[in-house]
Specification:
Order of helices and strands: EEEHEHEEEHHHEHEHHEHEHEE
Structural class: alpha+beta
Largest sheet: 7 strands, mixed
CATH architecture of the largest domain: Alpha-Beta Complex
Length: 319
């Protein structure tokens, strides 16, 4: 029998570890400066290799923005089948990623590649944040309003792309959303001040990340189903049952914590859809809601208010 040693020591300079499932780790360098570090990579979600590289970069950068940080450097992670993928395709993936990193003013300073039967790409990203302005996912408070900055539905759309049944407009809308940086949303939010809680919507889906927020904060979140933005074509694909396995597992995991008024349909199931490179999901005190809306509107950044936070046992109410 294998005995695994228990390591009890924790470095006091680690301000955010993995205890609360936050988006990135944070390590204090000084009283006014901390490192934010994250890593993410995945298999292709679109057919075009350049677009795939763009999306891989935007997705990896998102965790830094969700913590209130500013990305500085990145290391590329690349896995490709050496005997099946042409150098031109690999070059296009890297070029797409480089374009988005340049847009984010983030320097790619190295990386590592391996031979792998299935292509994968992503980045390890390092950024900085002030230790007193770290955005956390478990600090929502009763009375807060809940906002999201991108529509959901990439899981069903990506599966439809892989199955060859996604129409051009649906695929294009999803690709545009996934390659869009959360930088502008982070800056619009920071201009108002720190949110009470923040994360980004990724693989666990909207409901999964709301549950992390609710359970970590010890609150209930009331979600208004028809205020949640959906990608074009996503609802039709959900109604056709085109959920990837990851989205199905998300629903199985989170549904015991969700109270649904009016029954569970395709729209409700879509809220557990696995998201790639989703938007910021944050809460804000009601006295600052107008300022938040004005900040996003003045910068032309999309924003949707989708619910509110109330006292009660941790969970999600979906109506």
């Amino acid at each position: 029998m294998l005995t695994v040693p228990q390591v009890a020591w924790r470095d006091p300079r680690v301000l955010v570890g993995n205890e609360t499932h936050d988006d990135a780790g944070v390590f204090r360098l000084s009283e006014t400066l901390a490192l934010v570090q994250t890593v993410d990579f995945f298999t292709p979600v679109v057919d075009d290799p350049y677009q795939f590289g763009q999306i891989a970069a935007a997705n990896a950068l998102s965790d830094i923005y969700a913590m209130g940080g500013t990305p500085l450097t990145a290391l590329n992670l690349l896995a490709t089948p050496a005997d099946a993928l042409s150098p031109d395709v690999v070059a296009a993936m890297l070029a797409g990623g480089q374009e988005v990193m340049r847009e984010a003013e983030t320097s790619v300073i190295g990386g590592h590649s391996i031979d792998d039967p299935e292509p994968k790409m992503g980045y390890a990203v390092t950024g900085v944040v002030h230790p007193e302005h770290i955005w956390r996912n478990h600090t929502a408070r009763a009375g807060d309003r809940v906002f999201v900055t991108k529509p959901i539905g990439t899981g069903v759309v990506v599966k439809a792309i892989k199955d060859g049944v996604a129409d051009e407009a649906t695929a294009a809308a999803a690709a545009t959303m996934m390659r869009t940086l959360n930088r502008a949303a982070k800056e619009a939010l920071a201009a108002v001040g720190d949110p009470t809680a923040c994360t980004d919507v990724t693989g666990f889906g909207l409901l999964g990340h709301l549950w992390e927020m609710a359970s970590g904060s010890g609150v209930r979140i009331r979600l208004r189903a028809h205020d949640v933005p959906l990608l074009p074509g996503a609802l039709a694909l959900a109604e056709a049952g085109r959920f990837p396995r990851g989205s199905q597992r998300n629903w199985e995991y989170v549904s015991p914590h969700v109270t649904v008024t009016g029954g569970v349909g395709a729209r409700e199931r879509l809220f557990a859809d696995a998201v790639t490179s989703g938007g910021l999901l944050f809460t804000m005190s009601p006295d600052r809601v107008r300022a938040v809306r004005d900040s996003f509107r003045s910068r032309g950044v999309p924003l949707w208010e989708i619910g509110d936070v109330v006292d009660g046992p941790a969970g999600i109410e979906l109506a």
